[in-house]
Design a protein that fits this description.
Rossmann fold, six-stranded mixed β-sheet, alpha/beta, 15 helices, 408 residues, single chain
């Protein structure tokens, strides 16, 4: 069997990796121009296809039959070539979003849900939500409900972002501000790069449910694979593949006092995971062309913190890193979203009495007890997990891996 992904500009895609876990078939990327579409669908060498932008509607005339779900949504993202050569089209995005919604734990029955955007992804979300009994309001740039009259929907319980606003590289953008929705219980964002859009970070700050679209991507692939192979696949595969991708894509961020072992643990983690280790301070020194003591001497702490934020903004947008941060990065609240957008953060704790001070300007001029008292609530705010690093760094690294793999 030969399967693949059909689209316009595909770039990097996680679909081949996902499908490698789902069936015994090859899976390749078919990047086609509009004028190539007809010949490819009629004569192309494939058994099954996933279909993405901009062809989910364009492929419909070439399908001899549509599944009820594809007919309902007016879009096809899964195609199978039957034994007689004809094509049948299906839409597995419905199952994908349905899985995402179920995993979120949000109960939308009888609740007002705002769906941002009016394209194909929006149509899928709306169909699922209405089937679940939600009171759905679609927000678009025009029409009755738009971004200029959101105050009419301050009672919304859930927001679903089905627009590309906030996607990498435009990570500083958000389609709406959450302050206007005091009754909000959760946000679902179909974007999965970055792992946490500004919208999701705002939701996390509110302490409400915040889910990205990575699980939807995996779940829709699972149902597509069932169509390709004609075999049922356990939903357990969705859970396992989702965790694998999440751990692969997200950064591991290490925070903690100067000398708490972030670089040592980080290098051990790199050996264990295959991720790239980056020491943020070393990266800053290379970029600035001078040492940290020299930067402090020339510009003071304020100048150093500005350079540090620039470096963290650059590194935080990347994926698959192990990043050891400077001990004082937590003193700047602006660094939190830069690091958390694509990373899980671990606070390494070590007894203050054994922390070194050589080559660390602030550690030499400030009593470590006083510094720790000030920074402790900042580390707590930044960190997703706290790790004891008073004994073997390998043990601390293993604990982090166990947490990410769901073994703790």
């Amino acid at each position: 069997m030969k399967c693949g992904l059909l689209g316009g500009k595909l770039g990097h895609s996680y679909s081949p990796q996902i499908h490698s876990h789902l069936g015994d078939y090859s899976y390749v990327l078919f990047e086609k121009q509009p004028q190539e579409l007809e010949d490819f669908l009629k004569n192309g060498d494939f058994t099954g296809l996933n279909v993405t932008i901009p062809y989910k509607k364009a492929v419909i005339p070439y399908c001899a039959e549509l599944s009820p779900r594809a007919q309902e949504l007016g879009a096809v993202n899964t195609i199978v070539r039957r034994s007689d050569g004809t094509l049948i089209g299906h839409n597995s995005d419905f199952f994908g979003f349905e899985t995402m919604l179920r995993s979120s734990g949000l109960d939308v029955a009888g609740r007002k849900v705002l769906v941002l955007g009016s394209g194909g992804a929006s149509n899928t979300a709306v169909a699922v939500l209405r089937e679940q009994g939600a009171d759905v309001v679609v927000i678009s740039r025009g029409g009755e409900n738009h971004y200029g009259n959101l105050q009419l929907h301050s009672d919304a319980a859930v927001i679903v972002n089905a627009t590309p606003v906030g996607m990498y590289l435009n990570v500083d953008q958000s389609p709406v501000g959450l302050a206007a929705f005091p009754a909000l219980e959760g946000v679902l964002d179909l974007i999965y790069n970055p792992a946490r859009t500004k919208l999701l970070l705002d939701a996390e700050n509110r302490g409400i449910v915040a889910c990205n679209g990575l699980e939807m991507l995996v779940a829709q692939a699972k149902e597509s694979a069932e169509w390709f192979t004609g075999k049922a696949i356990s939903d357990d595969f969705v859970t396992a593949i989702h965790r694998e991708l999440k751990n692969q894509m997200e950064n591991i961020i290490l925070v903690g006092m100067p000398g708490s072992g972030k670089s040592t643990v980080g290098k051990r983690l790199a050996e264990m995971t295959g991720k790239t280790f980056v020491d943020a301070d070393a990266y800053l020194v290379e970029k600035a062309g001078r040492s940290i003591p020299d930067i402090f001497a020339d510009t003071g702490e304020a100048g150093f913190r500005t350079l540090e934020t620039e470096v963290l903004a650059e590194l935080g947008k990347q994926s698959g890193l192990i990043l050891a941060t400077g001990g004082g990065c937590v003193t700047q609240a602006r660094n939190l979203p830069l690091l958390h957008q694509n990373g899980t953060m671990f606070w390494l704790q070590r007894d203050i009495s054994i922390l070194p001070v050589d080559g660390r300007p602030l550690s030499q001029t400030t009593k470590l007890e006083e510094m720790y008292a000030i920074r402790k609530p900042m580390y707590e705010r930044f960190a997703d997990y706290t790790i004891d690093n008073n004994s073997d760094p390998a043990s601390a690294a293993q604990t982090i891996v166990d947490i990410l793999e769901g073994n703790v």
